[in-house]
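A quick aside before the break. I want you to see a complete sequence-to-structure record at least once, exactly as it would be stored in a machine-readable document. Don't worry about memorizing anything.
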Amino acid sequence: MTHYPDLTALIRDRRNVLTCGPIALILVEDAVEVESTIQHHQSLGFAQIIAFCAQDFAARHHLPDDIHQVDHDVTADGALMQIVNAMIEAAPGQWIYYSYNAEYLFYPFSEQRSIGEMLGFMVEERRDVVASYVVDLYAGDLTAHPTGVAREDAYFDRSGHYALARTDEEGIALDRQMHVFGGLRWRFEEHIAEERRRIDRTPLFRAQPGLKMLPDRSFNIDEYNTMSCPWHHNLTAAIASFRTAKALRRNSGSRHAIAGFHWQQSEKFNWRAQQLMDHGWMEPGQWF
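That is the input. The structure line, written in tokens, reads:
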């Protein structure tokens, strides 16, 4: 494992780290499912995996030897934007993916086809971004799993999702741009800050000069915020995430107010891409 004391040191060594992609950036907020998160993305075929975590994290917890670790406070305001924008500037032309620990990327046929194969198809489609949604996962039994996290007992909501057109400052709908809501963030929205309720995300994109992530996690190039290209529907992806469940169980107010996450629209998650396609969380587009 290569250890960097800060983001600047990683950038300084970019010729050894950032010239071969695709690159996965994993922001480690706590010790929950860190190893399984890294292993999942390794299995997809990412060329480089970079974990951003607290300075003493590796000393207290095991991290795989074949990744890179960067000391960085990922809980600080603006940390994601700082990291992503630094990577964009340092690795133009590379495909970059970002997520947090206890989050798992899925795309159509991801059990049989590598991330490189999928991105090769996107290049052929003249598409520099893979739009996605965050699928909130949660433990079905909070008595047995009080943190809200249980890979073997994971559920998600099969209904209760909706989309609104994204508008500009004058209220005019933007072309092919949507704000999507649902899952735990919709059912327990009174415990979720308004700016954190959306479940649409653009976690996988190709860096280019001048591209910037903005404070709301959108990008300054409008095409990077679209769901598909103008001429047909593109392949999309999904991120299965325990992050909201963790937060609701960690916060004292929501922990005591919520007796359980399971409801009549819960479905057991089988950790297969086909299940997410069957429920419309992602689509293969023209990729068969």
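Two observations worth writing down. The chain is about 25% helix and 25% strand. The chain has two domains: 1-101, 104-288. We'll return to this after the break.
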